[in-house]
Design a protein that fits this description.
By secondary structure, the chain is an alpha+beta fold. The protein has helices at 88-112, 137-151, 164-168, and strands at 3-4, 17-26, 29-32, 34-35, 49-53, 56-66, 68-74, 81-86, 115-121, 126-131, 158-163, 187-193, 197-200, 215-222, 228-234. Helix 1 crosses helix 2 (137-151). Bound molecules: zinc ion (ZN).
Length: 235
């Protein structure tokens, strides 16, 4: 089992270098005893980076999680102890886009009662699908305005573990998509923007909304009946 370093609290989301040990190597991948590499999933892309060891350095170009967390390597596989380094600009972009997505999704639910039904983050932009809804240009400006008003409160973001019944008691399950998480999952990692949003999520986030800048919606696409995709950047 690999210890996931960014899980326990918000500060751990900022770990960008650490020492680790290879516990398995096969084909083109290695498994580490501990990692801060985010494995692709939930609309957040894979982290990339490097593993360094005495006498070598290897590129981590993709990280996947299917039972075990595999760090896919280009070239020679390392052995033994390594020093791991994330491509920080890319990862930090994902953190900013992800926290912003929680805020935008919360605002859209509050204003239009439309759910988030898909999302894809990149380091420099993100897109989110909502249903059922149609947005006018004025609606898009309203989403920006309301999202930016939350961001401007410079709220400290927190990470915690909450038991499902406790979370069910204090959130709207549709608003945070809790009803989509299998009932068998009872222990949930929760991202909170206190006073605005509580959402179960395994992604990486920034420690304060002050790190986000301003949401600017740059595109709207109709993706079928009552389903709308909006794309935003952070300025
Ligand atoms: Zn999330």
């Amino acid at each position: 089992m690999t210890e996931i370093l960014y899980m326990p609290d918000i500060e751990s989301n900022y770990i960008r270098e650490w020492d680790a040990e290879i516990i398995k190597q096969k084909d083109d991948y290695v498994v580490l005893d501990k990692t801060a590499f985010y494995a692709e999933g939930g609309g957040q892309p894979t982290d990339t980076g490097w593993l360094e060891w005495s006498g070598g350095k290897a590129r981590v170009h993709m990280v996947t999680k299917k039972g075990i967390i595999k760090h896919h390597i280009e070239g020679q596989l390392p052995e033994g102890k390594v020093h791991a380094i994330l491509d920080w600009d890319r990862r930090y972009g994902h953190m900013r886009m992800h926290t912003a997505q929680h805020i935008v999704s919360g605002i859209v639910y509050d204003e239009f009662q439309a759910r988030t039904v898909g999302n894809q983050l990149y380091h420099d932009k993100a897109r989110v699908d909502f249903h059922p809804v149609k947005f006018t240009e004025d609606d898009l400006r309203l989403i920006e305005e309301k999202s930016n008003a939350v961001i401007a409160r410079n709220i400290d973001v927190t990470v915690s573990n909450v038991l499902r019944p406790d979370l069910e008691a204090c959130v709207n399950e549709e608003r945070c998509n809790l009803d989509l998480i299998p009932k068998s999952v009872q222990d949930l990692r929760v991202i909170e923007v206190p006073g605005f949003d509580i959402c179960p999520c395994a992604g990486t986030h920034v420690r304060s909304t002050s790190e986000l800048g301003q949401v600017k919606i740059i595109k709207k696409d109709n993706k079928g009946k009552q389903r709308v995709r909006i794309t935003y950047v952070l300025e």
